[in-house]
Amino acid sequence: MRLFHRLLLLATLLAFAVIALGAYVRLSDAGLGCPDWPGCYGHWLGVPEAPAEQLAAAQAYPERPLETGKAWKEMLHRYLAGSLGLLVLTLCVLAWRRECRQQQSPALPTVLLLIVCLQAALGMWTVTYLLKPVIVTLHLLGGMATLSLLAGMLFARRETSGAAPASPALRLLAGGALLLIVLQIALGGWVSSNYAALACADFPTCQGQWRPEMEFDHAFSLHRELGQTADGQLLPLASLTAIHWSHRLGALAVTLIVGALAISLIRTGHRRWQRWGGLLLGLLVLQIGLGLGNVLLSLPLPVAVLHTLGAAALLTATLAINIMLQRSPSPAGSGWSPSGKTRSLGAGACSE
């Protein structure tokens, strides 16, 4: 079904745009540009701009002065996310049509729609709970999960005839790389939501030390407000340092495992895997460079946004590699072959 495929491709590209714009909103300190949800100072379309509208907004929210620029950033993100939600709803409806259900299970499109609904709730809670770190981090992970399901369904629809063989060890390495990237994205979201990116302004040391003072109990406490400990005290620098340092250690693990996967793909001698290995290695190097740029250049906004988008690209590429590896034949004599379940479930809806 060409319509489903085109909408799936459009939704995947739109998910990238939503993640990039969400990072821009968060990093430009516009996450609370609108004190209410889903409107903005009571406006469903646009933001208060006329003098009378701005006066009404000031009276309704005296503790939250209107900043038009930040409000527009937040609303544009909401409009883009809402458009993505409508696309996902359309995909789910198409997947449940009889001619589609006879060819593919509508399970993944349905799960995707549920995740998007949860994302909308997390977006609301981000505002109502005043950027509580655990909510902001979950919101980022929900966006990445949405992108992953869309990209997974898209790649699973690709034809696999003539696929190069893949060993069980290579599949295991790819799975480990994917898991590490997910954990690292969660750590990165925790760094960003706690504004800990500049806790270490030097590299490879932190605050001039290889092991700076760190405090982990409050650093990774989920039940606390932004900038505070669980008992309401100011979050110490040592906690922010622990968050940042943990993300650096995670980056080291990702570099080693994802780098090993990329090199292993290149060394297979098969052109298809070599192309994907080269792409993966390029994305990894770019992501490392962007991370270093954030530290050494004091978190410039374009670099920070690109770092989030780079994480999304690295996740998508690794996911695609995992899907293709699972659907590829095993080398002769290995005694193992993929079950084919990934292909059956992943196609997501009607074939063309």
Which labels suit this protein?
352 residues; mainly alpha; 2 domains; 11 helices; 0% strand; globular
Write the layout of secondary structure elements.
Blueprint: H1 2-27, H2 51-60, H3 68-95, H4 98-101, H5 107-128, H6 133-156, H7 168-193, H8 237-266, H9 271-296, H10 301-327, H11 341-346
For the biggest sheet, the summary is: none
Number of E strands: 0
Q: What's the overall average pLDDT, rounded?
A: 92
Gap between N and C termini, in Å? 4 Å
Number of helices: 11
Helix content: 55-70%
List low-confidence stretches: 339-349
C-alpha Rg, in Å? 22 Å
- Count of all domains: 2
Query: Which geometry do the CA atoms define?
Result: globular
Hey, roughly how much beta strand do the residues contain?
under 5%
State the secondary-structure class. mainly alpha
Order of helices and strands: HHHHHHHHHHH
What features would you describe in this structure?
This protein is mostly helical. It is 65% helix and 0% strand. The protein has helices at 2-27, 51-60, 68-95, 98-101, 107-128, 133-156, 168-193, 237-266, 271-296, 301-327, 341-346. It is globular. The termini are close together. Mean pLDDT is 92; it is low at 339-349.
